# Entry
Amino acid sequence: MFPRGFEKPISLSGLQDEMSRLIERVWHSGVSTGPLDGQEWAPPVDMYESPDRYTLYAELPGVEPSAVEVSYLARVLTIRGEKVPPPPGTEAGRTVRHERRFGTFCRSVDLPADVDADRLSATFHAGVLEVTLPKSQASVAKSVKVNVTE
# Structure
C-alpha cells in the first residue's frame, strides 16, 4: 500500500525529478530572477511526446508573435522573445499591485532525442506558442516481426 495520493512507491530518483520540476516552476513562474539568470521572466512550458514527434507549448500572453524566435541546435530547443510593457501614461490610475513581468526572455529545453530540424514548425494562437518537433528517423522506434523457427 502506498501513501495516500501516491500511485507508485517513493524513490530517490522520483524525489529528485519532483524537486527538479519544483525548482523549474519557481525559477520561471514569473518571479523576477534577473539577478540570477539575467532576465526578468520566462514563460512556462509543457512538452509532450508521441511516437513520431515532440510537441511543446509555451504560454506567452501579451507577447507579439513577431517578437518570438524559435531555434533548434544539438537537441536543444530555444525560445526567445520580448514582452513589451505598455507605454507610460496608459495606466488606468495609481498602481496598487504590480505582478505582470515585461522584458526579454529565453527558454531552452533539452530534448531526449534528435529531431528533424527541417520539419520543425511553430504556430501561435491565443497567447500560446505550439512547437512541433518531428523525431528524426533514427529516433523513431521500429519494430520487427519475430519469426519462430523449429
Remarks:
- The chain has one domain: 12-86+101-134.
- The helical segments are 12-27, 34-37.
- The mean pLDDT is 81.
